[in-house]
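Hello again, I could really use a second opinion on something today. I've been puzzling over a protein and I'd love to understand its fold better. I'm sending you its amino acid sequence along with the backbone structure tokens. It would help a lot if you went through both lines with me. I've dropped the whole record in just underneath, so have a look.
***
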Amino acid sequence: MTLRLIPYLVMDGNANEAIKFYEKALDAQVLFNQSFGEMPENPEFPLPAEAKDLVSHATLQIGETALMLSDTFPGQPHQSGNQVTICISTNDPDQARKFYDALQQDGQVQMPLQETFFSPAYGSVTDKFGVTFQIFTEGRQ
């Protein structure tokens, strides 16, 4: 049996921008990306023209992990992404630094990347989309 936890981010109309950002910042590969306009029409929930290009569902592959995201369904309220925290775990301190540096661009550092008692390089940053990432490096130097 395979069991995975897949974080899912609900964005506020900027999912396409987030996808492009994560492709660069985390070397993500887009596995699937569908807009609301590509979905079958539902007469009970008519789609406003301005929402047709918003992301209804996307899956990104980052290393061995999947990340799913979408925009808020048109007409629904959006809550900031701070309810989701993602831990990026690596055994390479250089890779940890790369992720940390990329994610903090236009974001906010919660904890500087540093050696801790449990990791040779650990830090936390909230990116420009309001999503908090923990950067965790496995093992000791």
About this structure: The mean pLDDT is 89.
